[in-house]
């Protein structure tokens, strides 16, 4: 049978390693000694001092560039909207921590103020987080149980049960913050990369089930002691007391949950048409307060209400050393979970709005925030996805919105908190349950994982089951252990952790970048892979894409306003619905509609519009050593490839393993943008195709030699 298609013939000398070394000079990387590293670390000058100040106080970097005209109004609207939600979530999540509702307001205030100065995320809403609240509650009810004497701890003498619980919560929060601060000083922010999306999904789903069950006693109006620790998920107390259900609480909860779910669905479906999301939680809370007060729910229907609220601020307190000793083991996983969740959410919005966040600085920020807040009786703070989404979607640009949100909480604490005293606790329980929808819906991932990645499926199930029945702290440890075991079974595990992804090429035709990956790609190194790829090509494709889309918006606006005249062309679109300052859609494929000319990004653009240059037309990824690809890495790889393709950089993958190809097909990797035609059996095939497509950028007769240079992580 005669082969079809184009042919090529390779003619070169026969090389041994010795003969190759004789004809080609070896390139060695200059390595610094420990003395040089120490000298660089302790050397100080003016620039380094300034950089250190900006690093420790990120507010210095962005406050001087604050655009009052364009950003202030959005921050004000966002701060008010987020503040109202922060008040309600603070009250609700206090119940998870087994504390009086009012103390959740402290958590929504003090940590947010400190984060304003120390945090690197401009959109994170700092405050109570349901999973952390539940973990704090487990410690609180263990040391100060509902139905028994408290633990024998010095410092409890003369305190009421409420005061003892507040002391426990603040002490465990203080040590949690201390752990975060120490990890930040030790520069170990990278640890979050070892918590895969699969592990976090299984853990948070189990936590959501814990939270759901813990709120049933408020929703049903039952009176039994809270439980904690291993097997706390049992429904025994609920079923044994279910005949005492308070019908008023149950009906109120059902109505609240139905209304909130319906309106949230409306917000999601019509978010592009709504100026701001409908604040349904605030609306139903106000209505519930009014109805409860008017009809005296507390006495007529025996409904448990929020009751006396905190009035102003109390004097600072010191953490109890005995409580710290008793809770240190539980505080460490709380520190990890709080940071991991906050960093993951912050990373999403930093990518969307094109700025960088620093994991080590985030650890410092949350460490100091929690330690400072604990001194004023707040409990563990992180972020909540729903609250952060509100802060960003309502126009928040910076942490000015976060400070204004804290000011809203301050007003409630010192002035109008008494208005919330008639609020039934069942309403707070219902709001907590409704906000669990996103976490509970993660069960839908299981069929996909079972079909496409059994390893991730096992990690998810093990983490979920362990967290469900052993408690959240032990469950996280078991899940992490299971994940490390699965990684240990990946071929070339040692290479994954010991060798960088980047390779250096001796010869590359003009406009071509060849990038070789010598190890499996998985959740722990996918971000490292993407960072090194950006370093290799010399630009961030996502930033370039956003800059180009912004430039097109500006050109369209100039054409509409007559500021840019082009003769003998069709008139531009008169659609003025596009917001030139909006970041929505900037990461989507470039749309030239309404532009009557062909834009050449490598030439000078009108009106001093600046777009980062792209000096390559082709990117070749050598997958010859990639023997494994998990779901997290697959998602990251797909997003990266699309970013390059959308800025007109052709991507080719060569020497891909058959197993990897099968997995890509199974996981719906290919679509209208990423096609199977980008895969080539060898690097030489891909290079010949590139040089044929771009004949002006190289010669077919060139010999392409690749020499790998290893560098450490």
TrEMBL record:
Lineage: superkingdom: Eukaryota
Membrane topology: Multi-pass membrane protein
UniProt KW keywords: Membrane, Transmembrane, Transmembrane helix
Transmembrane domains' residue ranges: 72-97, 103-119, 126-145, 165-186, 198-222, 242-262, 274-295, 331-351, 363-380, 400-420, 427-445, 457-485
Gene Ontology molecular-function annotations: secondary active sulfate transmembrane transporter activity
Keyword Transmembrane on entry: yes
Keyword Membrane: yes
Segments forming domain STAS: 502-690
GO cellular component, one term: membrane
Localization per Swiss-Prot or TrEMBL: Membrane
Protein name as it appears in the record: Solute carrier family 26 member 3
């Amino acid at each position: 049978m005669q082969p079809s298609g184009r042919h090529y013939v390779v003619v070169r000398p026969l090389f041994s390693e010795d003969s190759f070394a004789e004809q080609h000079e070896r390139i060695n990387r200059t390595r610094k000694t420990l003395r040089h590293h120490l000298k660089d670390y302790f050397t100080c000058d003016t620039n380094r001092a300034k950089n250190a100040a900006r690093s420790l106080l990120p507010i210095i970097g962005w406050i001087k560039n604050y655009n009052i005209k364009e950003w202030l109004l959005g921050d004000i609207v966002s701060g008010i909207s987020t503040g109202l939600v922060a008040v309600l979530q603070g009250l609700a999540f206090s119940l998870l921590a087994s504390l009086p509702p009012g103390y959740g307001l402290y958590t929504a205030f003090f940590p947010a103020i400190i984060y304003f100065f120390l945090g690197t995320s401009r959109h994170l809403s700092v405050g109570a987080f349901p999973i952390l609240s539940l973990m704090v509650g487990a410690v609180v009810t263990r040391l100060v149980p509902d139905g028994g004497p408290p633990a024998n701890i010095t410092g409890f003498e003369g305190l009421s049960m409420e005061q003892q619980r507040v002391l426990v919560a603040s002490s465990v929060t203080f040590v949690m913050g201390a752990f975060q601060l120490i990890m930040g000083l030790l520069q170990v922010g990278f640890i979050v990369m070892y918590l895969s999306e699969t592990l976090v999904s299984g853990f948070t789903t189990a936590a959501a089930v814990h939270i759901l069950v813990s709120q049933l006693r408020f929703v049903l109006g039952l009176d039994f002691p809270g439980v904690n620790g291993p097997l706390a998920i049992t429904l025994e107390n609920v079923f044994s007391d279910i005949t005492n259900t308070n019908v008023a609480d149950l009906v109120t909860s059902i109505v609240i949950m139905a209304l909130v779910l319906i309106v949230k669905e409306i917000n999601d479906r019509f978010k592009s048409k709504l100026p701001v999301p409908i604040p349904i939680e605030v609306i139903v809370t106000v209505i519930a307060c009014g109805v409860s007060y008017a009809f005296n729910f507390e006495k007529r229907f025996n409904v448990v209400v929020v009751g006396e609220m905190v009035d102003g601020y109390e004097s600072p307190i010191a953490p109890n050393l005995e409580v710290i000793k008793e809770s240190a083991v539980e505080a460490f996983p709380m520190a990890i979970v709080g940071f991991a969740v906050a960093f993951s959410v912050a990373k999403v919005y930093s990518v969307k709005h094109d700025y960088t966040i620093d994991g080590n600085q985030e650890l410092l920020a949350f460490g100091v925030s929690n330690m400072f807040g604990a001194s004023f009786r707040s409990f563990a703070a992180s972020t909540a996805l729903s609250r952060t989404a509100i802060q960003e979607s309502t126009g928040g640009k910076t942490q000015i919105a976060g400070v204004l949100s804290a000011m809203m909480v301050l007003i409630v604490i010192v002035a109008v908190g008494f208005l919330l005293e008639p609020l039934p606790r069942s309403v707070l329980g219902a709001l907590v349950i409704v906000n669990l929808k996103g976490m509970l819906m993660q069960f839908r991932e299981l069929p996909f994982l079972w079909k496409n990645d059994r390893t991730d499926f096992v990690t998810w199930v093990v983490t979920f089951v362990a967290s469900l029945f052993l408690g959240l702290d032990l469950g996280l440890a078991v899940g992490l252990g299971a994940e490390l075991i699965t990684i240990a079974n990946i071929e070339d595990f040692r290479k994954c952790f010991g060798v960088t992804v980047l390779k250096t090429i001796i010869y590359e035709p003009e406009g071509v970048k060849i990038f070789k990956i010598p190890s499996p790609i998985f959740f722990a190194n996918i971000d490292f892979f993407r960072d090194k790829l950006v370093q290799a090509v010399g630009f961030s494709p996502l930033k370039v894409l956003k800059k180009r889309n912004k430039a097109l918006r500006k050109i369209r606006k100039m054409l509409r306003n007559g500021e840019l005249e082009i003769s003998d062309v069709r008139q531009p679109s008169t659609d003025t619905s596009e917001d030139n300052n909006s970041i929505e859609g900037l990461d989507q494929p470039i749309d030239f509609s309404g532009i009557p000319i062909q834009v050449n990004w490598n030439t000078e653009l009108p009106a001093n519009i600046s777009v980062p240059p792209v000096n390559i037309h082709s990117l070749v990824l050598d997958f010859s050593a990639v023997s494994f690809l998990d779901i997290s890495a697959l998602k990251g790889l797909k997003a990266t490839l699309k970013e390059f393709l959308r800025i007109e950089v052709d991507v080719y993958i060569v020497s891909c393993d058959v197993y990897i190809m099968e997995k890509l097909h199974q996981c719906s990797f290919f679509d209208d943008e990423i096609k199977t035609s980008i895969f080539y059996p060898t690097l030489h095939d891909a290079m010949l195709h590139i040089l044929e497509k771009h004949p002006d950028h190289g010669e077919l007769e060139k010999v392409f030699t690749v020499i790998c240079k290893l560098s450490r992580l």
